[in-house]
């Protein structure tokens, strides 16, 4: 169980500021969704937390700066699934998932590693793909395998960048249910970038709305109000609450649109 804290995070690409003083927390056993328009800085934020980019400010795991972690300890604790994960290696699905446990694989694959790979393939209902080659899969199947690679490591912190972007509706729901279930069961601190606002409202405990490199608002899904959607996304939308008090968003028009009411 590891608490993730981010304090005054700043990052620039070639002196262009992309993250401007971000502070937020992700609690163990909770799913926090980062939402916001294109180019808001969502992927950059995840890359900073994963240790791929070196920002200013603090990223703390249980109060310890990630800069002070040895690389192997950071990759053991934090599992990161990027937006553009692809592999050119000629591997089967099973081998690819097994590689997700690279931190524990030594010269010999343990029974525990094999079991963990099978278990995750089964729980995602993709075990029938086990012997297929990764480069022969559909985009959605490949995305499922990438998610399996991230989960098989049994991380303390899970960072997922648009993990459901290529999935059909049934798989989107199944995967988000699985991620939510594992987050609660294993007390993972899960941070997930999602564009689909209704799914974010339904599956996340907390939302962080990024806009132009800053936290515009954060809190329970009820932060998604028509005013926020208009201000952040430039859309007119209706927001109703379902039986559980979860906001359901119906987009109506772009505020720029001249043709729609
Ligand atoms: N490698 C890079 N070099 C220079 N600028 C970059 C690089 N990667 C991203 N940027 C810029 O940083 C800003 C934030 O990009 P980022 O990918 O973090 O946004 P995002 O919120 O994840 O967007 P999207 O929803 O479109 O995926 C954008 O203006 C983008 O053009």
TrEMBL record:
Extract the GO molecular function terms from the UniProt entry: ATP binding; ATP hydrolysis activity
Its domain of life reads Bacteria
Q: What class of enzyme is it?
A: hydrolase
Q: Name one Pfam family in it.
A: ABC_tran
Q: What is its EC number?
A: 3.6.3.28
* Segments forming domain ABC transporter: 4-237
> Which InterPro entries does the entry mention?
AAA+_ATPase, ABC_transporter-like_ATP-bd, ABC_transporter-like_CS, Metal_Ion_Import_ABC, P-loop_NTPase
Keywords, A to Z, come to: ATP-binding, Hydrolase, Nucleotide-binding, Transport
Q: What is this protein called?
A: Phosphonate-transporting ATPase
The species this protein was found in: Desulfofundulus kuznetsovii (strain DSM 6115 / VKM B-1805 / 17) (Desulfotomaculum kuznetsovii)
